[in-house]
Amino acid sequence: xxxxxxxxxxxxxxxxxxxxxxxxxxxxxxxxxxxxxxxxxxxxxxxxxxxxxxxxxxxxxxxxxxxxxxxxxxxxxxxxxxxxxxxxxxxxxxxxxxxxxxxxxxxxxxxxxxxxxxxxxxxxxxxxxxxxxxxxxxxxxxxxxxxxxxxxxxxxxxxxxxxxxxxxxxxxxxxxxxxxxxxxxxxxxxxxxxxxxxxxxxxxxxxxxxxxxxxxxxxxxxxxxxxxxxxxxxxxxxxxxxxxxxxxxxxxxxxxxxxxxxxxxxxxxxxxxxxxxxxxxxxxxxxxxxxxxxxxxxxxxxxxxxxxxxxxxxxxxxxxxxxxxxxxxxxxxxxxxxxxxxxxxxxxxxxxxxxxxxxxxxxxxxxxxxxxxxxxxxxxxxxxxxxxxxxxxxxxxxxxxxxxxxxxxxxxxxxxxxxxxxxxxxxxxxxxxxxxxxxxxxxxxxxxxxxxxxxxxxxxxxxxxxxxxxxxxxxxxxxxxxxxxxxxxxxxxxxxxxxxxxxxxxxxxxxxxxxxxxxxxxxxxxxxxxxxxxxxxxxxxxxxxxxxxxxxxxxxxxxxxxxxxxxxxxxxxxxxxxxxxxxxxxxxxxxxxxxxxxxxxxxxxxxxxxxxxxxxxxxxxxxxxxxxxxxxxxxxxxxxxxxxxxxx
Length: 648
Description:
This protein has 20 helices and 20 strands. By secondary structure, the chain is an alpha+beta fold. The strands form 5 sheets. A 7-stranded mixed beta sheet has the order 14-13-12-11-10-9-20, with helices on one face. It has a 5-stranded antiparallel beta sheet with strand order 18-17-16-15-19, with no helix packed on it. Strands 1-2-3-5 form a 4-stranded mixed beta sheet, with no helix packed on it.
């Protein structure tokens, strides 16, 4: 049975599906559990509550197989979904029975959602319509991928979801409307409370709306009973109810960001505002319309930055400015969208006027987001912070919240000094090692090397296809996770798509100093695009052949063993093979088309003609390669682990 309203994207529909019975080879069993069904290129008309008979193979979601990768299995398990079912052929839909859902959903929720959507899309389309539907009804997946990326780069992702601001506007709008209609105060409070509950249901009970709705409900009930509201008690009540209803929400990033942002706004805005001179705060318009919004944005950014860096490995320096400029426009667009949704079913001409005004507001907001996203350093990559950094940040925020106490100011200074000492000395006291990360890119190959001196190299990048780009979806997240924004060298074993396809995204998104390959020419789009990027970005190109030396990287040196010039011209699949040496340890990596004992050399410093005395590499003097590398198989010593070998 369809367990939730289907989510429609481009060429794809997906929905949660409650299993009732599973049949295998004519043997049927009653079961219970939830499955995520994904439908591609099929016209499947299904709605909440419909009963379907589907044919296919149940599969467990793939766990995270690389550092920094999104753990889809863990994400679905938080929603109590444990299996996937893909529908690609019409015959997989065996039977369909449309059944009425609950009265609330069929008679209230769906009509309201459809009415609001029709009122908006009657006059709006494209990016403005998708953005408004996202912030008003929570349909954020209709937004184009490029625009979502711009919002992410500018620190405005939170603006794409229904949040507490929507609830605040609903409360303000209806309380004002009831007051103008001379509705008694107690009745107006009760009606507004019912509207808030309906709004939460219409927006599919998203965590930020539930949290804000519960807080608003507590404040409205308190006002009904003649008791003053207390923001921390309301926030605690909201958290308690959500966690009793769905305990796994505590592990959800949406839940965490929602409550941390609210706590930061409430607890940090006053002390941050107190840092400014009193005349600025008391100014009739600058204090209320400029200074306080600035302090609120800064407070939310201070509180949520650690979580954002932890989850996305990035920080947006431009986010403070973008939030101050874009959020007021989105608030205005949200208010106009509510007015259009409320008037669209009985005053369509008035709704058209609201939509026309909103088009200008939304277009301006989108243009500003795109402008900020393309500014230099709009977003910077950061390594995932450790527990010490997170703990110090939390302590500093607590000290800032109680900054009016002298003891809190002393504690903040002590924590800051402790944090600075740890940041300075911990990397210097760490034992330098050679780390090799073997990345899971499916068909093809990719390996990331971090040398003892901190520089990084990448060999191969996996495949690039219309459906999945290994460079964008695998390699770049690993680099962000490790805080790598610059590669000393990229090495391509041979110019086939399953080895260099992912390098396109890497060359586009990361600074690269040197590009090394065997010199083989390949006339494919992927190979041509790689060569174009090497030329456009001024990356130094070096073809390697047997006998070349790579050295000068913090004690790591190597010798290219394969291929020779004749092999490159005669073979369709030449691949470089080389040997690493760090002290007495050596490492070999295999090459397609080469003898098994000839393996790939990773490095960034090399000189032609072997390790000759006085020859310089790509960035320093080349080191001597010991004679034993010239012949004989050498053993490779590896430490078993999750895709990483230490101390070669």
